[in-house]
Amino acid sequence: MATVATRTLTYAEAVNEAIRISMRQDPNVILLGEDIAGGADVDHLVDDEAWGGALGVTKGLVQEFGRGRVLDTPITESAFIGAAVGAAATGLRPIAELMFVDFFGVCMDQIFDQGAKLRYMFGGKARCPLVIRTTIGAGLNAAAHHSGCHYSVFTHMPGIKCVAPSTPADAKGLLLAAIRDDDLVLFFEHKLLYGLSGEVPEGDESIPLGTADVKRVGNDVTIVAISRMVHQALEAAEQLAAEGIEAEVVDPRSLSPLDSDSILASVAKTHRLVIVDEDNPLCSVAHTIAAIVADEGFDSLDAPIRCVTAPHTPVPFSPPLEQAYIPSPEQIAAAVRAIL
Amino acid sequence: MATVATRTLTYAEAVNEAIRISMRQDPNVILLGEDIAGGADVDHLVDDEAWGGALGVTKGLVQEFGRGRVLDTPITESAFIGAAVGAAATGLRPIAELMFVDFFGVCMDQIFDQGAKLRYMFGGKARCPLVIRTTIGAGLNAAAHHSGCHYSVFTHMPGIKCVAPSTPADAKGLLLAAIRDDDLVLFFEHKLLYGLSGEVPEGDESIPLGTADVKRVGNDVTIVAISRMVHQALEAAEQLAAEGIEAEVVDPRSLSPLDSDSILASVAKTHRLVIVDEDNPLCSVAHTIAAIVADEGFDSLDAPIRCVTAPHTPVPFSPPLEQAYIPSPEQIAAAVRAIL
Amino acid sequence: MVVTERRAVELTGETLLGMYERMVLIRVFEETTMRQFADGQIPGFVHLYAGEEAVAVGVCTHLADSDFITSTHRGHGHCIAKGVDIAGMAAELMGRRTGICKGKGGSMHVADVEKGMLGANGIVGGGFPLACGAALTAKVHGTDAVTICFFGDGASNQGTFHESINLAAIWKLPVVFVCENNGYAEATTFAYHCSVADVATRAAGYGIPGVIVDGLDPLAMFSAAGDAIARARRGDGPTLIEAKTYRFYGHEEGDAATYRTAEEVEAHRRRDPLITFGAHLTGTGIATEADLDGMRARAQTTVDAAYAAGAAAPWPDPAETLDDVYVSYRGR
Amino acid sequence: MVVTERRAVELTGETLLGMYERMVLIRVFEETTMRQFADGQIPGFVHLYAGEEAVAVGVCTHLADSDFITSTHRGHGHCIAKGVDIAGMAAELMGRRTGICKGKGGSMHVADVEKGMLGANGIVGGGFPLACGAALTAKVHGTDAVTICFFGDGASNQGTFHESINLAAIWKLPVVFVCENNGYAEATTFAYHCSVADVATRAAGYGIPGVIVDGLDPLAMFSAAGDAIARARRGDGPTLIEAKTYRFYGHEEGDAATYRTAEEVEAHRRRDPLITFGAHLTGTGIATEADLDGMRARAQTTVDAAYAAGAAAPWPDPAETLDDVYVSYRGR
Ligand SMILES: Cc1ncc(C[n+]2csc(CCOP(=O)(O)OP(=O)(O)O)c2C)c(N)n1
Ligand SMILES: Cc1ncc(C[n+]2csc(CCOP(=O)(O)OP(=O)(O)O)c2C)c(N)n1
Ligand SMILES: [Mg+2]
Ligand SMILES: [Mg+2]
Asked: Cα–Cα distance between B167 and B11 in angstroms, integer?
């Protein structure tokens, strides 16, 4: 493998860079969302004052690509996400931002009935090369309308691909692949990871969708963890290592398609599985992974499969409640110990 | 147990009867939906000409309860389902009809961000005694916008209860309980079951939500099946019985809360589990049941858990494709044989 | 708001005959489809466009393949007006492999992106945002393509109507919103479900022109659409056209439509666009009765051949269920 | 559409003083909240209502506890105007167990159904349908309760606006839609995001009255709301009121609001409703400067006490995370 130069970027910067690279390469890539540029018709704004999205992730892009390609939208998610679907079906490669995933309820028809099904309903004679970026996750005390994960809902839906990176490098590489992909991709960015720094390759280095990544090697138990939970799992693994337990931490990175082969291979080695998911438990990706392993990996298993997830509740506001809501390294370590 | 008189009703009639009984008992119960009465302001309609819902399930109710309690709505699911939420929070007990579950995308915010979360966000100081009736299921060649199941999406959501009856008796008993329940209940009626006849108790005999029902007793394998799939499973069980294999068919009836105890008890007896679900597989109720058993019932299991579900595709239109889409008795029987 | 009277439009006899031909083709397709459905040849739900031909044809006569339309559950007429292949449509409605969507879509999802037809739609109001998107593509690409969004009176209350027209208005998207107000949404009357007497009134809420047109008159439709399309192509943004029209049959096949009086149906049938437009053509000497009869006969031949081919065509293979979920991999 | 000028309204001195008192309480609550947020006492997102007091108070002065309101992410002012307990609010914003929602909701979800306050809302446009529902309850129960739906200019483009106003109009629901047009949706200007110059224009699309009001003037708000509420209670259906107002601070705490010019902010601050309404009260001899200062001081005492109590209150127990998902059973 050729060495690729890297530098330290935050997760937010990595997302921004992937978009910038893609927009430079392909004039069909456009960006749309609420305040995605920021202050659409405000002339006095000096460059870096434009919001660049509610959380600043797309800052600077309107300066390079102009308001013809970085479009602020009204607060009408059905209209602009549906427009992104229509644009994708007719020749553009839009990147739309759904500010918080919790808002999916106001625009889901355009995503799952139109965007996701269009190709199938049309007998394969259409494409929907659209990326919908959205933010997920608890931890900012943003309460029940701004803190959910809910990628399970999209993973459920045929015609949608789902990606949930846990590191800056994955965020960049997977987003490059997602933008280039000819299918509808939901790209889930965890709000608490935006500030995380890490080494990120320079240039146009994409990571194929549907490939898991082993974030830590170990022989005693497999911990599959999604998005920010990868870091909770790694912390749990450190705690366990102190006790002589070596956990393997597998990050699926893309939830649909899911690289179940990598998960099964790890379980075949460790014989034990704990799954960590910040989403609510019922009909979750965690449960899907458990179901796949309970079928295809049954003979490898020496112990029950444990899922460590958020509880079956909305996300509470108050800090101690929200902390209780988010799966902790301690809970993960305890789940591992219980099946050893 | 006191004997309760029964008579033969179709599943559609059973639903209708449960609503009628509830509306007679409680003036706060109202009905709203598109053409739920039918021909709202058309005076020349003679009684039984009013549609009573697109599939005729609520026929006759407007004649008894009047247009003040059986309200036709415009095609604005967000507005009228959200209005049902607001009405439920302020003293009514509405029953809203979402004509096909596939339309959930146009109104999901009002269901899951408003109705389902209201009580939690308000610290327990509000209630949402609302039933949303909707139709599910493939088999009418109604294609990708009118044939899905998608109860998994609602089962995922905290604050929502999900019920999916498979027989006329269950439909009536569970709907009576749902209307009386103080929480938001999604009630999934399978379109292909509407014409099914069965013995249904007279009067106000409700069935508690959260209780599974063993539809067939057997010792060799547990088949958990949902909604119409109960009948496919029973057919498979007959095929298997001819080979000397006795399957136990468990119908969870309510998906949230889920009576996992009954499922685990059956698996503890049979040591083998096949789950049948007409919904798409990823993040499905099937996978959740598999995950629960792979954890809590792991020690009972003598074989991999198999899920027989619809494929990860939208519902195709063409009859042979749609038939391939729906889990068949043959597929179920084959799944059982494979793990024996 | 402007109420468009039927205006003298400069149209060649050839164009007029072409319009009639399209209209009669739609009518014959629909009436044949009705029989095929009754014969059990067409599975699923079928919503006929018969009676509304003047709308689709009046509008689409302005369009090239590079222009787009979005459609509804009542989409056959839009497809035919936009030039979608009749045999492909018939086979699709029958669920055959040779269908334009390989049997995956059926009546409610007929589509042909190559022809600029972005699909019938099973979701009422589903097409509004898609139309904005197709128009956005034209705007970003700098072409003069226009997009027409057809929708029903029932759809005019959906949230997507509002969101999309506002978006199109502020972005000055080249899109024309065409409401086919046939007076009913299923069994519910327009007078009940809508808070205003004319959908076109709502245009004022978006600062765009709103136009009421006699949707039974193809020439009125042609001229109103022409103005709106020109405006859109010029970059001046969207227009809302309300075509007052009528569906000759029930909401869907199987609906007895008892919510309509016989007198009401009769009154509209007397204004059948094929009769009135046919009379216009014969009256102005552009065609003879025999010409018109010939066109209808040719349409019938085309449609019969399409259905015959469909009936003879193979069913899709069950394994195809898994195809075309994604571009890059197969469902499972 | 009617543009409501400030009208002479017959109000007792007591009512006027009560209005001022509510307004100053909102202002003091918001400015104290700002400091508490800066001090790290309030987690999460906080959107201040300061500057818009005349709207909530002008409207809610007409209401009893049996009337309902729906609110927005910028909900503190609506809560206070509707009589929600200040201590319960402060503790809620701080996430304490004694909060009005037991710490589950926070700033974006403050609610008090007993007081007819159906919740702030984290979803822009989320309140429209809920308001129709509360109004439907009144209609079915045959009471004269009215529901007010507060929403922002940004929300006026959401689909729920359109769907809900149409529904309220055809059902003649007793609801009043009050748009707080503060010129911005986050960093996006009203001029950009909305296709018409006045939201009230859209009323014509639903056949209901649309009224533009000076949202910095509590008396103009009072009189416009009075007309609309009376109409609603009479059973004549909804009204759309557009209050032209301004938020004195950023979209949320942390927003420097550089998209607004200093001059624009200054111009609005000069028309601060507390200053102008205060001047009206002193000018007409209803109150002295000292009276007004006294009210402000008392408000400050109330709010300070509320925040002090909040700071001293216990945190919820982590086990409470599982409470109140359902009435009948506990989450897990
Ligand atoms: C979101 C949604 N809600 C409801 C339906 C069911 N439905 C199909 S067609 C229809 C009536 C549509 O009326 P209109 O828009 O006037 O079109 P028309 O049938 O008159 O052409 C309804 C309610 C649907 N398909 N989608
Ligand atoms: C459905 C939805 N989309 C986007 C947001 C993010 N958001 C929160 S407040 C806001 C601006 C609202 O503007 P406006 O309605 O004018 O209210 P204001 O903040 O000016 O009071 C936005 C975009 C949201 N909360 N909900
Ligand atoms: Mg109609
Ligand atoms: Mg605003």
From this structure: 6
Q: From the candidates A145, A146, A150, A190, which is the catalytic residue?
A: A146
Which residues are CB-contacts of B187 (< 8 A; sequence separation ≥ 6)? B131, B132, B133, B134, B163, B174, B175, B178
The amino acid at residue A223 is I
CA B320 – ligand 3 centroid, Å: 32
First to last CA, chain C: 53
pLDDT at residue D1 is higher than 60: no
Has residue B207 been placed in a domain?
no
Give the residue on A whose Cα is nearest the Cα of B296.
A304
Rounding to the nearest 10 degrees, give the CA dihedral for residues C147, C153, C156, C157: -160
Q: Distance (Å, rounded) from C-alpha D178 to C-alpha D243?
A: 7
**Measured distance CA(A16)–CA(A56) in Å, rounded:** 10
Whichever domain contains A271, its CATH number is 3.40.50.920
State which amino acid sits at residue B198.
G
Answer yes or no: do B224 and B159 share one domain. no
CA of C186 to the centre of ligand 3 (A): 7
> Are residues A158 and A281 both part of a single domain?
no
Mind telling me how many Å the CA of B223 is from chain A's nearest CA? 15
Range of the domain at B194: 6-201
Q: Structural domain tally of chain A? A: 2
Do C204 and D204 count as a contact with CB atoms less than 8 A apart?
yes
Question: How does D167-189 read in b/e, with b if 16+ C-beta sit within 10 Å?
Answer: bbbbbbbbbbbbbbbbebbbbbb
Q: Which of A173, A201, A229 is the last residue of a domain?
A: A201
Domain check: are A245 and A192 in the same one?
no
How confident is residue D315, by pLDDT bands cut at 50, 70 and 90? very high
Residue in chain B lying closest to C73 (CA):
B145
Q: Would the pLDDT of D8 be above 70?
A: no
What is the DSSP pairing of strand D188-189 with strand D184-185? antiparallel
What does the alpha-carbon distance between residue A61 and residue D34 come to, in Å, rounded to a whole number?
32
Q: Residue for token digits 């200093």?
A: D262
Q: What is the ipTM of this complex?
A: 0.98
Contacting residues for D309 by C-beta, under 8 A, at least 6 apart: D87, D90, D91, D98
Half-sphere exposure of D19 (CA within 13 A, CB side): 31
CB contact under 8 A, D192 and A76: no
Residue B34, domain member (yes or no): yes
Q: Cα dihedral angle (D258, D264, D269, D270), rounded to 10 degrees?
A: 160
Region for D257 from its dihedrals, namely left if φ exceeds 0, alpha if ψ lies in -120 to 50, beta otherwise = left
Residue B143 has pLDDT above 80, yes or no: yes
pTM: 0.98
In a domain, A269, yes or no: yes
Quick check: is A271 catalytic? no
The pLDDT tens digits of the residues spanning D89-115 come to 999 999 999 999 999 999 999 999 999
